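Task card 7
Instruction: Convert sequence to structure tokens.
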Amino acid sequence: MSAGGGSAATPLGSDLVDLRDKIASRAISSEAATRATLDRAEQLNPTLNAFHELHAERSLERARAIDARIARGELVGPLAGVPIAIKDNIVTSWGTTTCSSKILQGFKSPYDATIVARLESAGAILFGKTNMDEFAMGSSGETCAWGPVRNPWDTTRVPGGSSAGSAAAVAAGICHAALGSDTGGSIRQPAAFSALVGLKPTYGRVSRYGLVAFGSSLDQIGPLTRSVRDAALVHSVMAGHDHRDSTSAIEPTGDPVGACDARAADPASLKGLRVGIPSQYLTGNHPGVDALFARARAQLHGHGATLVEVELPLTEVGISTYYVIAPAEACSNLARYDGIRYGHRTAKPGDLFDLYARSRSEGFGTEVKRRIMLGTYVLSSGYYDAYYRRALQVRRLIKQEFDTAFAKCDVILGPTAPTPAFRIGSVQDPVTMYMNDVYTVNANIAGICAVSLYGGMVKDASGGGESGAGSGTASPDLPIGVQLQAPAFQEPRLLAIACAFESMIGRAPVAPISHLS
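Output:
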């Protein structure tokens, strides 16, 4: 099925803002929208494996309460009545939080994450938890303990990771927005593979209180949506200082929605914009990625933007740096899962050592174990200076490199990932898998903000295949993402530029679903 087959509209309207406005005007009830969302999730989930659990009863109860408030003419929040999915590493006091890991199977949190409280205060209906790479460790959605998540554009392919279920849910039109977490590209890369907008905020912009930690100095929560304005709206609700998060920034959040509105549907506002083009982003990519990246550059230039050559020579070094820092922090964060305090406990404990060893061995998957071992190694006596300390030194150099580049330009443009979505099971070498994040990890290392946008569709050069399990049809066109990066705490400016870019390139269609149901 070609890209043109994806033009079918979701029954919930064109985007989140459209649905929100219809609910506010009582053209559709929140209850009806929530029922449609739950029905669509139940219909498509057996194929996509996007959701770990749905919270139907609670969601419908909240939707009815929103409808009643609107009918009484009461003030409601900016997300009132809109169904939103959340990644299963964000804790809620209802349902379970498993991080798609057997070691947390059945775990119930006693409290809500800060962003959960903020979204519900804004009227959002948080209707389900989405599957993910286990503990957010992965780039494909394949390390989920409950099986791989599938891409709605082609169910033989990955939707990207680690926010795989969130991306698949939005791409299939189940909902207009879902939350992900981004440690090294885990919002932006699935956005690119699934024809979505994925925002990674500046480190400290959004509270991490209630986010199950992977890499504490790298993690950030952000939205996956079908439009930039939707992403700006969800982000504006979540952003802001939180005293419960010691890494939360006190910087003012600005008005990202207003900034988007100022540039919406106006590519002419790109005139005079300085766009940095790193030479390091121009080689080693899939031919389709290179072609669409070249098209984006040409269109920006045609709309009056100035293309500026910048150098980011530490781009590839970022992967090595990330895979020292992130596993070091992960092995520390995951030490609490020991089979004693909470989580999985082996049925054959033996002595205390056996209890620890067996519980962790049975509960963690292969990729998590690999990163725990790597983190333990780089932090061990005799290797700390050679690896971890040096990685922190390189981290500072990467930050300085971005500072130098941003002195010459307003934003940096590049591909989000070097390839389109690859086939499930086709990448067995961990290093090859890690290189999917080559263009995204450095934003996390430097703590800046970045957004992935729909860049167009390409043919897969890797050969034929089926568009759905057993469909027997030719491989479809696949989406490609384009990334914009901006200095820290410049989300309003970044999203405004992204909005103008989106109006220039065009928004992605909804993925075709006839082969899914």
